[in-house]
Amino acid sequence: MAVTEVKQALPTEVEGPGLVEYLGVFTRRPKTIIFPLLIMTVVAGLIAYVIPPKYESFTQFKVRDPGLTRGLLAGTQAVVPHKPLLATIGTDIIRPGFYMEIVRRVGLTEGFNLNDPEELSDFFKYIDKNLVVKPSFTKSGSDLVTISYQGRDRKKVALFVSEVLDGYRNYFKNRYRGLAERLYRAAESSLRSHERTLVDLQAEYNAFRSSPDYSLVSVRRQLANESGSLRERRTELEVTLNGLQGQLQRVLAQIRDQKTSSVTVKFVPNPERSDLKLLLDQERAKLNVMLTVNGLTDLTPTVRAQKTKIESLERRYAAMDELIPGGQEVGPNKLYQTLVERRDDVLAQIEGVKRSLDKVEKRLITVRKNLERIPDLQAQDDKFRRDIGRANERVIQAQKKFATIEGEWNRIKSEGGDLFDVQEYPRDSDPPVFPSVPLFLGLGAAAGLLLGLGLAFLKEFSGMTYTSSSQVQATLPLPILGEVACIPTDEEIAEQKKRNRSLWIILGCVALIVGALHVLYFSKGLQHFLPPFLADLMDSIYKGR
Fold first, then answer.
1. Which 3-state string (H, E, C) describes 314-373?
2. Is 67 contained in some domain?
3. Domain boundaries, position 516
């Protein structure tokens, strides 16, 4: 072959490895990928099994809102203890003085030597770090509190949280009971004081009513009522008198404008109008004769002239007055006489009102003199009544308040008067929070897979062995004439199929057994079919050791 043909046969541009080359790594180097995956998964499982587990236990409870006592305190301007007590729960619980006795009773050491001062200080820091208290406050209703702790011994952790719960409940009860008892004693003392005040006021009032002068109180009350009625009557009479005097002034003004006598004008019939009426009747009779007797029509000049004359007479007759003045008559003025009568009547009413007003004034003077002679005991009697009424109201309010606080105090100090409602009790059957075996296995498998893939690709693309024609062509710029694959014998093919079949059968059986065990383990109705040693093994995996 000529050199020119060889050069033409050479590729002008060598392409890099494609997707097929990358996927071929999985088929050519499966062991390089699988072995790191298995090794890292096993190592992660061993690490998760070797690391000391850490368990968490928590409790959640509601603190019932003592709204009754809070309302009573709000009325007395006192500090409401409920929220401040809950607000200090976190700092109170994590104090060594609070939980040290609980630690000794439970036997919780967490690997520290409590007799060594330095380790004891580290133990306190460990408790402070792992003991978490989260109160959740509400504006109204119960408040929710969560207490959690993480430690190494599952049973001791749950027991420690339970003891902390009991310790705080007793602490809160004692604080709250002490407050309720103080309120109870204060309410009882206040009630007794108000009752004594009421009794003293009633005794003083009874002594006052037994005095000889007290009999005059009713007389003075009657005189005072009469004085008030007289004053009202005087006011009414004064208003009436002012009205009558104004009315009199108006009548007198009208009388001054009138005269004692009046002139009346006489009217008589108009004689000219009577003569004109007679003439008009005569002309109408003439027209009637012309039309009926003579047989003339309206077109006749004589008839038309007669009608014109009659119309002229009718206009004169209509324009003429029927009556004309015929003289005057002089007589008394009736309106003047009526006004005089009205004036006399008003004067009589004014006189009567003045006499009534004078009588009221005289009686009012007499009543005032009698009132001045009687001691003013009504004001003192009213003051006694007001004081007794207010004292009685205070006693009633104090009784209600005392009854409320007494009921609250009896409820709190009794065994059934618990202020807490536990929602979740500590459990010693929860799996460890660290390490998580499934999580470690998953992380180990992921790390092993990445490591295996890295090694496989590193060997594939950095080794000196050619595994594909593209690698040869990329290294040596020579044309590829063909590929000769490895031709296995019939015995090798049969052996490979047998190994593959056995491997798939083993994997299927393992998957089936593992799946069946998980179904039995996680089904409450089928757990009794699981062998004890397998149940313990799965408990160690999923729930910790």
1. HHHHHHCCCEEEEEEEEEECHHHHHHHHHHHHHHHHHHHHHHHHHHHHHHHHHHHHHHHH
2. yes
3. 489-545
